[in-house]
Write a structure and sequence with these properties.
homodimer; Uridine Diphospho-n-acetylenolpyruvylglucosamine Reductase, domain 3; Alpha-Beta Plaits; six-stranded antiparallel sheet; oxidoreductase activity (chains A, B); FAD-bd_PCMH (chains A, B); about 475 residues; flavoprotein (chains A, B); about 30% helix
Chain lengths: ~475, ~475
């Protein structure tokens, strides 16, 4: 094995000095991500401009046995993009071109370093939409969204990022380029290799390019906030809406009372209904014309109120009113400023059990930490529950809170990560959602595609 | 290695004599599938009744180094279920229980040997639908549909089988059971292993159980047959319909004139329009009420006619009329009886290029075999083109026709198999759609999950 200095000299020679920053020259923002993991300075930060440069870099790292940590927008919440000491941090930020938008086939080809928002805007420019949206859209990059199989607000209608990916270009640890970019919606020719890299958090290879599916843009949208008496009513209302607007319900965000109260307090908003209610659901539905859609929504919400599934409802009559209703849900952006700090969970459960899970979780937290502040909210339509607890209200016992919550998740047969991934942060709890046989099969695939264990080592699972 | 007779004795002892048929006792229908591949009698046919029995069988085969070919409904068109000499044919037909249907979370748990039709019926019984449908529904089994990532008529709206699979139970070559059945729509906990087995045609393991996603059942449906002047008009009409009925367009089946003529002749049907037209598209759209939906469809087809995208249209006014329109498309069932025999293609292409591909393909066929009978049709919305040529009109030169067509597919950057898979039949052409690096990565995954190469050997690719 060559020394670090020989490796770095070879790196600069292969890629050019302007692509490589070493040691103290690496900007500190590349030392960690939004997960709050302790910063780790990498040996070097490399920012290539093409797939060929990524391939040359990986070939060199492979020859010198230097590990590589791919970095996108660094907005991940599980720590997958935190560098490893002695390794290269590979930032895709200079590969940010939207290379092609094809409105007729509703596809878009993009380099991995483009932001999610750039993809959204390119789709809107041709009268279509990208099916994925989440709060970090302005920073999160396509490669990271693919590598974490990101979720967000559009999952109910269009699925996670996996369902938007028609093709990928990936560079393997030894520099091999896999050009899985054929622009076909259907391609049953051998194993669908690209699936392996979606959600692999950079442990199997580096995503350099994606061919994404775009979706039709509804001409009109209606938004409503609905007050609900209990969790089962929420599920009944959801089923009613799915039946009435098949394929057109784009959001059904459920908020427990604790979340609504915190949101109103943090943002100094007014109570949306005359009285407080145990739950509220924020609903978006797409259609052909504003007025007709609002009428249809009013009709179905009226039926829901008669059936006892809803107790009050506000239908936005303008875009401004819709934004005001969404503001209540967007208190998630206020979590870091108002909890000290927040302990965040992103779990998924069999849909029917979510209400009982939340109840039992809250009871268990209250039994141990009376007076704790915890807020429950989630994309109930796809079984995803978020929970944030203010660490300062549980004596800073973050580890104990995690153990309690993940034990409940395991007892309910749920998943410890619905959409954020495993990274470093959830590694200790992966066994709560996967059997030893599954973990062994994952390790076998890792071994097959990265036999020297150079790709993002120590993330997802240990070898 | 033990002898065959020792292996067979151990097999009968482990599973019981009623699970095992040997040599001449194996019913001939298990010697091949619908692909027309020459029959191969297996060493034995085993029909287990549980996952535990499948696991015991594979453990035993592993110990004795006996290869295993999984068999579902034997309706595959690429030969993936054809036994190998000296190997076990593993039929899932006795594992056909629908184990659970959960209308609230819109999921269904089923054993791999249940038919696609049984799943469809179980979904309808709770007011939902299964998003997958194709002609062989009454025989094709869930395990086969998963293992070939089947397509069919519902792909435009709901995607291929992959997008319906929330969980799988799979038995690996060494008998290990992977219970990837957690009923969650979102589960980002490590690699999404189940994806490896979807479309792997039984070469990585045996699918024994699936957790499937169900879809809302539209209250109303409208069907229309539309005459089109050219291919680009078809794409424009498709985009118009997608924009007008986002998420609700469930079929857009394009038929070239040669297909329509053959269909009318074979089934003694009347010309659907006053004059023949170069193309016709069969359209299904879902909605809330029959009358409103027909009105909306009439309006948008009127717009399309004004824009020159359509030249004539018939909207079904009853279920019987809808069936009559579909009858023209269902001439595919008549192919085997009317072509001698049919040489079938299932390719996919960049959507915008399909018209030109068909034109050039037909011209090349006509140049070499003047007077050949070929019919073109497909699920254009997802880029999938089918083509069948009557072998008796090309001097029985099946191999030459395949070479010609697959060379065109490669030249257009298309896929040699959109939905039928590779099996035995398309193995020689896999390289037209996959690079050597991709094939090497597939082999690495095969090696990782089935190091002794016992699962369906010789299918998809050679090792």
């Amino acid at each position: 094995m060559a020394t670090y200095s020989e490796f770095l000299a070879a790196l600069v020679e292969a890629l050019g000095a302007d692509r490589v920053q070493v040691g103290d020259a690496v900007p500190p923002r590349h030392h960690t991500d939004w997960s709050g993991t302790a910063p780790v300075p990498p040996l070097a930060l490399v920012r290539p401009r093409s797939t060929e440069e990524v391939s040359a870099l990986l070939l060199l790292c492979h020859a010198h046995r230097v590990p590589v940590v791919p970095q996108g927008g660094l907005t991940g919440l599980a720590g997958a993009a935190v560098p490893c000491a002695g390794g290269v941090a590979l930032s895709l930020e200079r590969m940010n071109a939207i290379e092609a938008v094809d409105a007729r086939s509703a596809t878009l080809t993009v380099q991995a370093g483009a932001t999610v928002q750039a993809v959204q805007e390119a789709a809107l420019a041709v009268g279509l939409q990208f099916g994925v949206d989440f709060g970090a859209r302005g920073s999160a990059q396509v490669g990271g969204a693919v590598s974490t199989n990101a979720g967000g607000n559009g999952v109910l209608q269009y699925g996670m990022v996996r369902e938007q990916v028609l093709g990928l270009e990936v560079v393997l640890a030894d520099g091999t380029v896999l050009p899985m970019l054929r622009p076909m919606l259907k391609n049953n020719t051998g194993y669908d290799l690209k699936q392996c890299f979606i959600g692999a958090e950079g442990t199997l290879g580096v995503v350099t390019r994606a061919l994404l599916r775009l979706r039709p843009l509804p001409r009109a949208k209606a938004t409503a906030l609905v007050a609900l008496p209990d969790f089962d009513a929420a599920l009944a209302l959801l089923a009613r809406l799915q039946g009435r607007f098949p394929g057109a319900l784009s959001a059904f965000e459920l908020m427990w009372r604790d979340f609504i109260e915190a949101s109103l307090r943090w943002q100094t908003l007014r109570e949306p209904f005359e009285a407080p209610h145990p739950f509220a659901a924020l609903i978006d539905v797409g259609g052909q014309d504003e007025a007709g859609l609002r009428d249809a929504l009013e009709e179905v919400l009226g039926e829901a109120m008669e059936a006892g599934e809803a107790v009050d409802a506000a239908i936005a009559q303008s875009e401004a009113q819709a934004r005001a209703l969404w503001k209540i849900r967007e208190a998630t952006a206020e979590l870091p400023a108002n909890m000290h700090p927040p302990i965040n969970f992103d779990v998924s459960l069999p849909q029917a059990d979510i209400g009982r899970f939340a109840q039992e979780c809250r009871a268990a937290l209250s039994a141990r930490w009376p007076g704790h502040l915890s807020v429950f909210f989630g994309h109930i339509g796809d079984g995803n529950l978020h929970l944030s607890t203010d660490a300062s209200t549980v004596n800073g016992e973050e580890g104990a809170v995690e153990e309690l919550v993940y034990a409940q998740v395991a007892a309910f047969g749920g998943s410890v990560s619905a959409e954020h991934g495993i990274g470093l942060h959830k590694k200790p709890y992966l066994g709560a959602s996967r059997t030893p046989a599954e973990l062994a099969a994952m390790r076998a695939i890792k071994q097959a595609l990265d036999p020297l264990h150079l790709m993002n080592p120590g993330k997802v699972f240990d070898l």
